[in-house]
Amino acid sequence: MRLTVTKLKRLKDCDNQVRLFAELFPDGVDVTEALCVAHAGKFNRDWAARYLLPAPLRADYEAKHAALWADYESKHAPLRADYEAKRDALWADYESKHAPLRADYAAKRDALWADFEAKPAPLRADYESKRVALVADYESKRDALLADYEAKRAPLWADYESKRAPLWADYESKCAALFGRLAEQVK
Questions:
Q1: CA 55, CA 39: separation in Å to the nearest integer?
Q2: Of 43, 48, 53, 102, which cross-links 57 as Cys (Cβ 3.0–4.6 Å)?
Q3: Mean of the pLDDT values across residues 78-84?
Q4: Helix, strand or coil for residue 49?
Q5: Residue 29, phi then psi, degrees to nearest 5
């Protein structure tokens, strides 16, 4: 079969597969067994079987592929089991050595935390006792300043009010007269 970039695009092969094909075979290629073996693992064979092979050849591929997969799995399963058994033993060894380390760390961390937690309470009490005294000192000095201010402000206010009152009375009188003149014009 002749395969080209155009054909792959028309069949909507994924972009990365089309790019790889274009890099390796910019002018297209005749697909052969040797070519497929040489590029095994680079291309998605299941996609190619589904979209490039006619139905009878696709069924043959799928049947033979299933047998190849079963053979692979039968050889792979003991390897995986051996790996997992050895890995599990290593993990158990790690955990047996790690558990006392973790416990030691946790005990020391908990002691540090308890020490930390114990210190803020006395520090806060000391802060509060000193803050209360500072606030009392501040308030007593502020109150004295406020009293002095009020004592000095009171005569100023009285002087201001004594001067403002006649102005206000004059203003009120003139406004009342204005209103009265306008009211007289209403018939």
A1: 24
A2: 53
A3: 91
A4: helix
A5: -160, 150
Query: How many CB atoms are closer than 10 A to CB 21?
Result: 22
What residues contact 21, with CB distance under 8 A and at least 6 apart?
3, 5, 8, 13, 43
Two structure tokens written together for 84: 């997992």
Domain-wise residue ranges, the chain: 1-52, 54-118, 122-187
* Of 184, 182, 186, 163, nearest in space to 174 by CA: 182
Look at residue 176 in the predicted model and tell me its pLDDT.
65
Could you tell me how many residues make up the chain?
Answer: 187
Range list of β-strands (E), the chain: 2-3, 29-30
The answer to whether the CB of 37 falls within 8 A of the CB of 67 is no
Q: Which two tokens stand for residue 23?
A: 């890099």
Instruction: At 7, list the tokens.
Output: 């054909």
User: What radius of gyration, in Å, describes the C-alpha atoms of the chain?
Assistant: 49
Could you tell me the two tokens for 118? 């114990």
For 104-134, b/e burial (b = at least 16 CB within 10 A) is: eeeeeeeeeeeeeeeeeeeeeeeeeeeeeee
Q: Has this prediction a pTM greater than 0.70?
A: no
Among the listed residues 36, 67, 35, the one whose alpha carbon sits nearest the alpha carbon of residue 49: 36
